[in-house]
Amino acid sequence: MSDSLPADSVGIVTPQTYRFDTPIDLACGQALDSYQLVVETYGELNEDASNAVLICHALSGHHHAAGYHSAEERKPGWWDSCIGPGKPIDTDRFFVVSLNNLGGCHGSTGPNSNNPKTDKPYGPEFPVVTVQDWVKSQALLADRLGIQCWAAVVGGSLGGMQALQWSLDYPDRLRHAVVIASTPRLTAQNIAFNEVARQAITSDQEFHGGRYYDHGVIPRRGLMLARMVGHITYLSDASMGEKFGRELRDQAYKFGFDAEFQVESYLRYQGERFSETFDANTYLLMTRALDYFDPAHDFGGDLARAMTTAQCEFLVLSFSTDWRFNPSRSEEMVNAMIAARKRVSYAEIDAPWGHDAFLIPTPRYTSAFSAYMDRVAREVGA
């Protein structure tokens, strides 16, 4: 590892691409004849492959969860605060697998990938994918890696939904599920936020029905607006107030409609940066996967009944100021797990940063997360 990188970093990492030539059937009724998944791994797999941990990403996440792609890279992977030597997911003890899901736009097969049947990007013809589809593809990846049972499947937000789905679809293939800042299903308000974001994208004149690749453009403004709406929901009123307040960019009102307040400038910057790195069709897919997630749906809305097949133990963590996925939604999960007689540990972390708090290493969060993962490591002799 380069001397310029932090001592608790996993260091320089190189993504790997796994190709699958056996068709995968999807919940929407369609299938992908072949596909690829881009993956990063950290740490070493032990002899009996019992120390593997799967990281499931959230809406705008990807495979680059920890470390750096080069010594010159300034910003590490999106969950570097929790993955690495001595961190909650300790790479001196665990073999960590992080992937970009199907439908993603960072190397795994998705709308911006070439459709072998047309020799053009899939675009809007890429099938709608669900959390169950992702978990199925992750299980096939585990087969490829020689991992029969995960020590833990871990995720925050949409990643937490995948961890929960793993416990239901493959109950004998994980020992623990860690569900952070998540929910068993979206509220009407959350679905509404997602619909506003999708409308922002699809109404952009450069969207072209999802075939913007053919026109050499991107629906930049739509993506910007979608990200701005989303970003507001990831933060708390208190954190936005502390960070920006009503601070002006200059000292006086301009009596116009350009960005005058610091928070306006921040949101525009976040939107512009996002529009340069994320695919619009992927954003549509990811938000729809969020909308569809509801493991209790086939059980008359009874989440406890849905949980009966689970065999693993659970850690559920929520954050006091998360109004996107309120702690009451985590408590709903925990109550269902208890009713289904599952072993579950739960903590609500007092943190001012809203939904994004799961990305920030606050002391109580880190302590609770580390203590649980230490127990997971000891169980597998890591």
From TrEMBL:
Residues the entry annotates as binding substrate: R227, D356
First-level EC class: transferase
Chief location of this protein within or outside the cell: cytoplasm
Reaction(s) catalysed by this chain's protein: L-homoserine + succinyl-CoA = O-succinyl-L-homoserine + CoA
Site entry (Important for acyl-CoA specificity), positions: R324
Pathway in which the depicted protein is active: Amino-acid biosynthesis; L-methionine biosynthesis via de novo pathway; O-succinyl-L-homoserine from L-homoserine: step 1/1
InterPro entries: AB_hydrolase_1, AB_hydrolase_fold, HAT_MetX-like
Keyword list, A-Z: Acyltransferase, Amino-acid biosynthesis, Cytoplasm, Methionine biosynthesis, Transferase
GO molecular function annotation: homoserine O-acetyltransferase activity
EC number, UniProt record: 2.3.1.46
Pfam families (alphabetical): Abhydrolase_1
Active-site residues, Swiss-Prot/TrEMBL: S157 (nucleophile), D322, H355
Domain AB hydrolase-1: 51-359
Compartments in which it is found: Cytoplasm
Family per similarity comment: Belongs to the AB hydrolase superfamily. MetX family.
Subunit structure and binding partners: Homodimer.
Function: Transfers a succinyl group from succinyl-CoA to L-homoserine, forming succinyl-L-homoserine.
HAMAP family: MetX_acyltransf
Protein name, UniProt field: Homoserine O-succinyltransferase
Organism: Marinobacter salinisoli
